[in-house]
Amino acid sequence: MSLDLDIHLQRGRFTLEVQVTAPAGVTVIFGPSGSGKTTLLRAVAGLEAVDRGQIVIEGSDMTERPAHRRAVGYLFQEPRLLPHLNVLGNLKFAQKMGREVAPQSFDEVIALLELGDLLERTPFALSGGEAQRVALGRALLSAPKCLCLDEPLSALDQGLKHRILPYLERLRDRTDIPILYVTHDAAEMARLADHIVLMQAGRSVLS
Ligand code: ADP
Ligand code: MG
C-alpha cells in the first residue's frame, strides 16, 4: 500500500509544491513552522482543495473526492472528541461513519491503545494523553487507507509523550497503511520514522 502525492496549491502568498511517495509505515514530515506541513496533510485529507496535482491512496485517485469519502484518518494536535458522547460513544460513532469495516476489530483497537478502562468516561474526564489515545482509536476505527497525524504529541508534556510513543510504535508495527506523521521533535522522528520528508518553504527538499 502506498500514498502518491503530487500537490500544487496557492494560499495567499504561500505556495505548496510537493511530490512525495509514502509507502506503508511512518513517513515523518519534518520542517520549520510555516513550511506547509499542516497544509500538506489537510490537502491529503481533502480539507484543502488543490489547484492541480493528484492524490492517490492505495491506487485510488482521491483528488476529486470530498473529505468524508477519502478514507483518511486524521489526528489533530488536540483530540477534538465529541463532548456529549462518552469514549465508547465516540469510538462507535467513528466506526459507523467509516465506509468500510476497519481491518482491526473494535476489540483489537481497544487492546492496541489500552482503552478498555476508559470507555465509560466522558471526554472532559480524560487526561490529555488519554484523550489523544481515544482520538487515535477513533481514527483507526473509521477504516482509514491512510493516517495523517499532525503533531499528535506536541500538546503533551514530556512524561506523557513518552507514555504515548509506545502506542504509536505498536500502531506502526501492526498496520500496513501509510502514516504521515508531522513533528518537529527530533526524538519522536528518530523513534518512529521509516521515511523522512523534509519540508522547507512549501517544498519537499529531501525525501
Ligand atoms: P506548518 O504546519 O508547517 O507550520 P502551515 O501548513 O500551517 O505550516 O502553513 C504554511 C503557510 O501557509 C504559512 O505561511 C501560513 O501562514 C500559510 N497559510 C495557511 N493557510 C493560509 C490561508 N488560508 N491563507 C493564506 N496563507 C495561509
Ligand atoms: Mg502545522
Give an overview in words.
- The chain is of the alpha/beta class and 207 residues long.
- It has one domain: P-loop containing nucleotide triphosphate hydrolases (Rossmann fold, 3-Layer(aba) Sandwich), CATH 3.40.50.300.
- It has six helices and ten strands, in the order E-E-E-H-E-E-E-H-H-H-E-H-E-H-E-E.
- The strands form two sheets. The chain has a six-stranded mixed β-sheet, sandwiched between helices. A four-stranded antiparallel β-sheet has the order 2-1-4-5, with helices on one face.
- Helix 2 (87-97) runs parallel beside helix 4.
- The radius of gyration is 16 Å and the shape is globular.
- Residues 11-12, 14, 31, 33-39 line the site of adenosine-5'-diphosphate.
> What is the H/E order?
EEEHEEEHHHEHEHEE
How are strands sequenced across the largest beta sheet? 6-7-8-3-9-10
How many DSSP-defined strands?
Answer: 10
Looking at the structure, the CATH topology is: Rossmann fold
- Identify the CATH homologous superfamily: P-loop containing nucleotide triphosphate hydrolases
Features:
single chain; 207 residues; alpha/beta; Rossmann fold; six-stranded mixed beta sheet; four-stranded antiparallel beta sheet; 6 helices; 28% strand; globular; binds adenosine-5'-diphosphate; binds magnesium ion
Task: Set down the secondary structure blueprint.
Elements: E1 2-11, E2 14-23, E3 25-30, H1 37-45, E4 52-57, E5 60-61, E6 72-75, H2 87-97, H3 106-113, H4 128-141, E7 146-150, H5 158-174, E8 178-182, H6 186-192, E9 195-200, E10 203-206
Parallel strand pairs: 3-8, 3-9, 6-7, 7-8
Antiparallel strand pairs: 1-2, 1-4, 4-5, 9-10
